[in-house]
Structure to design on (267 residues):
């Protein structure tokens, strides 16, 4: 069982930030990544549609004989994680719980900001998860719909990006937050730019990094951690539902490594 791959599911390329953290933390683990690029973005779709798409993604990854599934999409994690967990014969991990735990550990002022897609913010998934751990924490949420296109365009260090960050996030800073949860898997790529705008006094919670730690802990607990084998790029496979060329172009920037094995599939 330990040599089986980890499955990672996302609506597009954003989940590659989670894959990258898993690769760095667990270099012996094989990964099967599925990006539903034909139907991205999920953030503006109805909960019923998101749930249907997510189950199709889960079914595909289970058919690839994975030992664990990571739902590397905040929108899916916020919408139907419990249903996915209840219908899987392997562990299913979302990105929200890991981020919520880290936010509670990090804040000292008990004022936490959360940014994400419209659906993630509207769902109050992070708010509920944080308050379940510490009900005294105040959460200020903000949807930042322009961040994803800026990131995918590669505009990480442009004046327009800094102005957009300031427009979205300075009101949260003025409210006195000391911790900001990056509640979308694209957002870790903006960490340096966000830190430059907000200043060092506001700590950033990278849900991709926290999710990778949760993956490691879960595999250890289940006795499924792969501690052996020589590393090579052959252990990473990528599947998309549309436009593999575009995925490869953007994905290699996200991963900072070559994408060698990519296939287009129908769900």
């Amino acid at each position: 069982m330990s040599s089986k791959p980890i499955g990672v599911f996302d609506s597009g390329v954003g989940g590659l930030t989670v894959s990258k953290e898993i690769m760095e933390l667990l270099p012996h683990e094989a990964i099967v990544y599925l990006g539903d690029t034909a139907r991205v973005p999920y953030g503006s779709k109805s909960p019923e549609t998101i749930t249907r798409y997510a189950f199709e993604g889960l079914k595909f990854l289970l058919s690839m004989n994975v030992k664990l599934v990571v739902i590397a999409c905040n929108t899916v994690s916020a919408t139907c994680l419990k249903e996915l967990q209840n219908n899987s014969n392997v562990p299913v991990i979302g990105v929200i719980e890991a981020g919520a735990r880290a936010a509670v550990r990090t804040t000292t002022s008990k004022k936490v900001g959360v940014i994400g897609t419209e659906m993630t913010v509207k769902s109050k998934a992070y708010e509920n998860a944080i308050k379940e751990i510490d009900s005294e924490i105040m959460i200020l949420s903000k949807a930042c719909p322009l961040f994803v296109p800026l990131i995918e365009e590669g505009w990480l260090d442009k004046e327009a990006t800094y102005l957009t960050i300031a427009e979205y996030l300075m009101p949260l800073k003025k409210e006195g937050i000391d911790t900001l949860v990056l509640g979308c898997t694209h957002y870790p790529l903006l960490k340096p730019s966000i830190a430059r705008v907000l200043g060092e006094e506001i700590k950033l919670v990278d849900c991709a990094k926290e999710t990778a730690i949760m993956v490691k802990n879960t595999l250890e607990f289940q006795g499924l951690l792969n501690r052996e084998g020589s590393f090579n790029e052959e252990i990473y496979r990528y599947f998309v539902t549309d436009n593999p060329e575009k995925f490869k172009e953007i994905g290699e920037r996200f991963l900072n490594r070559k994408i060698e094995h990519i296939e287009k599939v129908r769900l």
The first helix runs from residue 16 to 25.
